[in-house]
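Chapter review: from sequence to fold.
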Amino acid sequence: MSDQKPPKGKVWRGIRGFFHGVDLSRKILLNLIFFGLIAVLLVLLCGGGPDVPDQAILVVEPKGTIVEQLTG
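The C-alpha cell string follows.
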C-alpha cells in the first residue's frame, strides 16, 4: 500500500484557502439571518399593544341565543 499525501504547493494552499473563505462566509451569512430572525421575533413579541385609556370599558354585544349547556 502506498500512503498518498495531499499535494503540497501554492495551488493546493490557494484551493484550501478559497474553500475556507467560502465556508466562513456561509457561516457568517447564516448566523446573520438566524440572529436577524430572532431579533424580529423579539420585537414582535415585546411590541406594545393598542393604547387603551384608563377609564375604558369593554362592551360585548352577543347576538343570537345564549345557552349555558348544549342540549343533546
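Two observations follow directly from the output. The two ends are 83 Å apart (CA to CA). The CA atoms of residues 30 and 36 lie 10 Å apart.
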